[in-house]
Design goal:
8-stranded mixed β-sheet, alpha+beta
Length: about 550
């Protein structure tokens, strides 16, 4: 081929090379765009399942403080169709009370039923007093023919025998006090025998007396009917407990222990409270104030039942099953991580938003409880540690990173995430300069002295739509700066559902009053981490529960 021919072909070859390079370059660019899109908005497939990491969510019962501190009560009533058991802290059965279906627990003292409330009062129906007769052994005369002459002086007549009981313990005290009540010695009196524990020893007690002299007189009379060599008058300390049959008003048990704490459970099934609904598990009663004769009331049960209870306060059955499962895992993770949150109070969780709203009742026959069961034991891990599973009702178009609040390294899995699927919760608030001044004042800020002149809402450096710095200036030139999305949300929560907003001054053309400050926002809550409404939206698009979780918490595992 001549040099001239070569030169003629060279431009044609270069053109094809360029075309191929353009195509390859275009494919590369498209690939990068697709990769970015998939990274931002892709979700796990059905093969993305919970990992077996042997997380023990059932290591112990959890505990919820129902009444404590300033809300401690003088008595608390429970009902159970199957009766009750009194158990030790190690769950050893102390007494069974199968015939008692409604029981009131109180710190021993001058307690009376006034209406349906057992309180420290001299009015109403007295059920607990200051003094009692206590015995550790007894004997009585029994008629073989049961001719109605019983009781009688202890010396038996022909055809009669003496029944002797001594050495009370956990295994025999129930049968012994039942036997004493059926013996006839308390006929024509209002007394009944009942079990008692004092200093870790078992006794039988009877009688409730206002004075020691009354108790001594009754004891002298009873010695004509009972052989009681080890009897004395006792006054239970204000830290001890009396258990009262709420239907008959009779004392059914007294316990005075070193730690002033007892446990009470239903023999089978749920327990209920006339004031507080139905409950799983069992109850702990602990002395709170000896001076006021009050006690704290603690409900103890499994973590799974706890999640089944609190989930109904967060979402309803309109959530799809996958969304409900995602929420169940988030709540379980949150609860597991918060164990011992109220350790100084003697329990794990309170019943308010500080922990989780809790009303006791567990409905096991609905979709929400089924979601808890379907994810049993599953929690969210970051580098094998249980995460801080923060969540909101709705985050809006983005979440806010924890970096603005806790520092850069604290919770790396709580980074900013764009969430275009979560924009159903929008809001607008309008304030005049004077109204906004009152809003700021009610939030506790005194830097502002007059109506507001300007408002500046600056976003954070984390790429979130949430305001990280809110600056307000009044007409006198005073300036207030509020830093941090969480602080902005907390301080203005009665008015702003979230810190995900923009602000402008109305020109009157938008239908608002000219000069009003208009706040337009998305979301409801802190905006960090998981979104309940966002989970609902993703599940409606057929996204699985694990993928929903991973859409909000970065680089995490769902494990059990």
């Amino acid at each position: 081929m001549s040099d001239k021919q070569k030169k003629r072909r060279e431009p044609s070859t270069q053109l094809w090379v360029r075309i191929i390079c353009w195509i390859l370059g275009l494919l590369m660019v498209l690939g990068i765009i697709l990769m970015i899109f998939e990274t931002a908005y892709s979700f796990a497939t059905e093969t993305d399942v919970a990992v077996d990491k042997k997380i023990n969510t059932e290591k112990r019962d959890i505990s919820v403080g129902l009444y404590y501190g300033d809300t401690a009560v003088q008595s608390f009533t429970l009902a159970s169709a199957t009766g009750f058991e009194i158990v030790s802290r190690s769950q050893k059965k102390l007494f069974a009370l199968p015939s008692v279906t409604a029981i009131s627990v109180c710190v021993d003292g001058r307690m009376s039923f006034v209406g349906d409330k057992l309180i420290d009062s001299d009015s109403g129906v007295r059920v607990a007093a200051d003094y009692h007769i206590q015995i550790s052994e007894y004997a009585y005369k029994s008629d073989i023919k049961d001719d109605g002459d019983n009781p009688a002086p202890i010396n038996p007549n022909p055809g009669q025998s003496v029944v002797i009981h001594s050495g009370f313990n956990q295994s025999n005290v129930s049968s012994y006090f039942d036997d004493l009540n059926n013996s006839g010695v308390f006929n024509n009196t209002d007394m009944r025998a009942y079990p008692a524990i004092s200093d870790n020893r078992y006794y039988i007690r009877f009688g409730q007396f206002d004075t020691e002299d009354e108790a001594e007189t009754t004891l002298s009379a009873m010695r004509e009917l009972l052989l009681i060599n080890d009897a004395k008058i006792v006054s239970v300390s204000d830290g001890a407990f009396s258990l009262i049959d709420a239907l008959t008003y009779r004392t059914v048990c007294e316990i005075s222990t070193a730690d002033y704490m007892i446990d009470l459970k239903s023999i089978e099934g749920y327990v209920s409270s006339p004031d507080s609904g139905n409950y799983n598990g069992y109850f702990t009663f602990a002395s709170e104030s000896k001076a006021q004769r009050t006690m704290k009331v603690i409900n103890r049960f499994s973590l799974e039942d706890y999640v089944s209870s609190i989930i109904s306060y967060e979402i309803d059955e309109n959530f799809s099953f996958e969304a409900a499962k995602a929420v169940a895992v988030v709540l379980r993770t949150n609860s597991y991580r918060m164990l011992d949150r109220h350790k100084t109070d003697g329990f794990d969780f309170c019943t308010e938003n500080h922990c989780h709203v809790f009303g006791g009742e567990v409905n096991t026959d609905n979709k929400l409880s089924e979601a808890v069961t379907a994810t049993k034991g599953e929690v969210i891990l970051y580098k094998n540690n249980v995460i801080n599973a923060v969540y909101s009702v709705s985050c809006g178009n983005t979440t806010v990173s924890a970096e603005n609040i806790y520092g850069k390294e604290k919770y790396p899995y709580l980074s900013t995430v764009e969430t275009p699927w979560d924009q159903s919760f929008t809001w607008i608030r309008s304030f005049s300069p004077t109204e906004l001044f009152y809003v700021v004042s009610l939030a506790g800020f005194d830097e502002i002295k007059a109506p507001i002149a300007t408002v500046s809402a600056e976003k954070g450096e984390d790429g979130s739509a949430y305001v990280s710095t809110l600056t307000l200036t009044d007409i006198l030139g005073n300036i207030l700066v509020v830093e941090g999305a969480e602080n902005i949300h907390d301080f203005f929560s009665p008015y702003f559902p979230s810190a995900n907003f923009s602000v402008k001054i109305s020109d009157g053309a938008d239908g608002n009053v000219f000069g009003n400050f208009i706040f337009e926002g998305f979301g409801d809550g802190c905006g960090i981490g998981f979104s309940l409404l966002g989970a609902k939206a993703l599940a409606n698009d057929n996204v699985g529960y694990i993928a929903i979780i991973k859409a909000y918490y970065k680089d995490v595992d769902v494990a059990y």
